Every structure is written in structure tokens, then in C-alpha cells.
Amino acid sequence: MKRISKILALALAVVMIFALAACGQSAQKEAPKAQTEEPKKEEPAKKEEPKKTIKVGFSQMENNNPWRIAETNSIKEEAKKRGIELVYTDAQSQTAKQVSDVEDMIAQKVDYILLAPREFEGLAPALQSAKKAKIPVILIDRAAAGKAGEDYVTLIASDFIKEGQEAAEWLAKQTNGKANIVELTGTTGSSVAKDRSDGFKDVLKKYPDMKVIASQTGDFARANGQKVMENIIQAKGKAITAVYAHNDEMAIGAIQALKAAGMTPGKDVIIVSIDGEKDALKAIVAGELGATVECNPRFGPSAFDVIEKLQKGEKIPEKIVNPDKFFDASNAKDNIDAAY
Ligand code: GYE
Q1: Based on the domain organization, do 60 and 126 belong to the same domain?
Q2: Which domain covers residue 229, as residue numbers?
Q3: Which of 9, 254, 262, 297 sits 20 to 30 Å CA-CA off 90?
Q4: Is the confidence at residue 299, as pLDDT, over 90?
Q5: CATH of the domain at 207
Q6: What pTM did the predictor assign?
Q7: Is any ligand 1 atom within 6 A of the Cβ of residue 141?
Q8: Do 241 and 210 share a structural domain?
Q9: DSSP letters along 156-211, please?
Q10: Residues 242 and 317 in one domain
């Protein structure tokens, strides 16, 4: 036994000597190579880089219309462009899910949160959790209850009151201040539906012969807009002379309902809406939709500009208002290609 282990130890020693020699050789062989690959020396610095990658959570409320999809794409594209890691969630039209989505992001330790609030109320628990975790929240496209600079950093959005006012002024001109209007409102409880209604009705005060004869929610969706319009047509029939839809999708639904009822949109019934999506511009060219107030969904550049400013410690205003255009028969065709 002793002899056998002695032999084994000897054999092992021989193998090790050879192995060491081989190592030395390959190290020698590779030495010149290693010298030319100088950046290798900087590896430790490189390793720190991933820490600098910003991780941003984007809580989208839903993705059920072209406007939303354009917004989601804009955020995703811009994050990619800037090398920012994005954690994306879709609340599927449920405020409760939106709260838990934000809480998940906090657990994932994102550096910032972009939040597109479905409803004005109901998101306080999410905002509080983010505040506790010291994660800045930037509201985009709709408002939520809370204080800028305290519960969230800022709100980037269009001026919805102005949008409603512009729609009303256009309609007043088209109808010589005389119209029986059906209002198709957006999501109940959203800041945008309230403001677009308020702005519109504000202007109507100047025109006593312009009346809202029915106002119902179509939840910003085409199919709902169509269904609601069908019911209103059944109740009001030919008395309807105008439609104000809080977004293009519902306006397009209303156009379909009017046609099905044997009415001619653009002639019997003048229609105005908001957003500026491709289908709406096409409907303007077709003479069915009168006009649409633009509401720009491309939030990517402005949202990530805010984040980069926060990174540098710069001050951010409490509200950032998106500039919007106006589309009617004079410019719809020229803007179709650029629309979403
Ligand atoms: O007009 C509509 C969308 O919040 C401004 O929501 C946004 C609105 C937009 O679903 O189409």
C-alpha cells in the first residue's frame, strides 16, 4: 500500500510539473497579445458602468386605442435610444391594477416612475409608496390627485380645457352658433374627461342656441362610442345636429352609428373630436369628421428629458404643457402620413 501511494504521489508530481510548464508556455505565448489588449486594464472601471444605467418604470393604464399604443411606443423607443432600462406594465383599464403595478416597480427598485393615471382618484397609495421609497414619479398625459413637487415631480400633459374650448369654438363657427349636440365623454373619473367637458361647456355659455342634448361616456373606445351613439340616436333621432367626442375613436364609432341610422355625418350632423389619429384625419378627408384638436401622444422625448434633468439635479416646473395643433379640411391630408 505504502509503495502504491508513493508511486501515485510521484505520478501526480510529474503531472503537475508538466501542467505548470504548459501554463507558463501559454502565458508566455499570450503575453504579447495581452500587452496589445490594453483596455483590459480598465476592466474594473467598465464594470461600474451598469450601475449608471437608469431603470425606469412606465405604468400605462391600458392599450386599447391608437393613441395609447402611440404613447407606449414613444416611451419604449425613447428609452431604447437613451440606453435606459424600462420596466413596463399595462393596468388593463383597472385602477386597482395600476396601483399594484406601481408597487411592483417599487419592489424592483426602479430609479424613476412614469405614471399615466387612468383615474384622478385612487392612485394615492401608489404615490405614497413611491414617496416612501424615495422614487420620483412623473405623471404623464393625465393628472392624479396630489401635489406637484411633493407627491409627484411634475405633470406632462396637454391643456385639456383649451382642447375643449377649441372644439367648441370650431363647432360654433360651423353651426352659426346653433346646434343640438351629443357629447361623448371619455373615461369617467379621469381628469381629461372632466377638463374636456368643462372647456367645451365654458365656451357654450357664449352661444345660447348651442345645447348639449345628451352626454354619455364612451370610455374613449370606438366600440363603446358606437353603441352609446346608437342608443342616443334611438332616443333623439333627427334632433341631433352635432357631436362632440372627447376622442377620435369615439367620433369614428359615432360616425358608424349615424351612417347605420341613415344620417349623413358631415352634413346632417357636424362632428368634432380630439386627438389627431390617422383614422380621424382620413375621416376629415372623407368629409365625415369636421375637425380634430390635436393631443400629442408622443411623450418619450419630454418624459426622459425630465428624468435626465433630475439626474443632473436640475429643478423641474410643476407642469409641462404639450403644444398641440388643430386639424381640419385645410391640413388633414398633409398630416396623414405623420399620424399614428
Ligand atoms: O385623448 C385618449 C386616451 O389621456 C390624453 O386618453 C389622454 C386621452 C386621449 O385614451 O385617446
Answers
A1: yes
A2: 160-295
A3: 254
A4: yes
A5: 3.40.50.2300
A6: 0.85
A7: yes
A8: yes
A9: EE--HHHHHHHHHHHHHHHTTT-EEEEEEE-STT-HHHHHHHHHHHHHHTT-TTEE
A10: no
